[in-house]
Amino acid sequence: MSDVEAVGGSQGITFQEKLGSGAVQTTTIAKDGSSVHSRHTLIGGKVTPSQYYGSCPYEHRSRDVENSVVAAIPVAIVGGVASHLEAFKEQDRVIKSWTEDTRIWKGLRCGSQFLGKDMTAYTNEFGLIDIGRAGCSDGKFLTRVDEIRDAMNQPAPALSENSYWAIYFPTMGIWLVFALIAFGVVNLLGLWFLAVRSATRWIKAEFQ
User: Which residues pair with 147 in a beta bridge?
Assistant: First the structure.
């Protein structure tokens, strides 16, 4: 069973752990956040330096958090750009679809002037009327009488009210999840590294 003693000073705080093997393990954390991890031999009640490990796990843990942030930031930036492009593309698609629907609706409404008139000259063998050739469109526009009547009873196509942000935020939310995953993965790798290093040091200390 080991005893741990904390000693405070003007430069920071030191944790001294007396090990059963007659050694003292020291961890010093300075006020600026830096830390040192070392191992000493206890001879005649005096501490004699025997092994220096360098920075302790607290400092490496801080670096792991910094690395996690560095990994998450590029993902968030890429997500912001990708979300903007996706929102812009979706808006463009909606406008093009609305433009085409409006063109068809106007053409059919124009064809209503021919209802009840002889359209044999503009009707093909399948019974479809080419109202485009009759002057209701720049090109061929095949339709049926019932479609023309339906258009007369329908209002003009409405443009979707989906705003840029309504598309941007859901897409960006997905990328933020990816950023959090990157943050977590780097942290887990850091913890795994610290666990392996601590186990290695413990094994070395036991066999010294």
Answer: none
Residue 143 dihedral angles phi and psi, to the nearest 5°: -155, 175
Query: pLDDT for 9-51, tens place per residue?
Result: 666 666 666 666 566 666 666 655 556 666 666 555 555 554 4
Does the pLDDT at position 91 exceed 80? yes
- Which residues, 6 or more positions from 192, have their beta carbon under 8 angstroms from its beta carbon? none
Tokens of 131: 């109202």
**Residue 75 near residue 179, CB atoms below 8 Å:** yes
> Phi/psi of residue 29, each to 5°?
-115, 115
In DSSP notation, 94-116 reads HHHHHHHHHHHHHHHHHHGGGTT
Please give the pLDDT value at position 21: 59
Looking at residue 58, its pLDDT comes to: 45
In the chain, the DSSP E strands lie at 3-8, 12-18, 23-30, 35-43, 46-54, 129-130, 142-143
Cβ atoms of 57 and 194 within 8 Å: the answer is yes
Nearest to residue 18, comparing CAs of 30, 26, 7, 9? 26
pTM above 0.85, yes or no: no
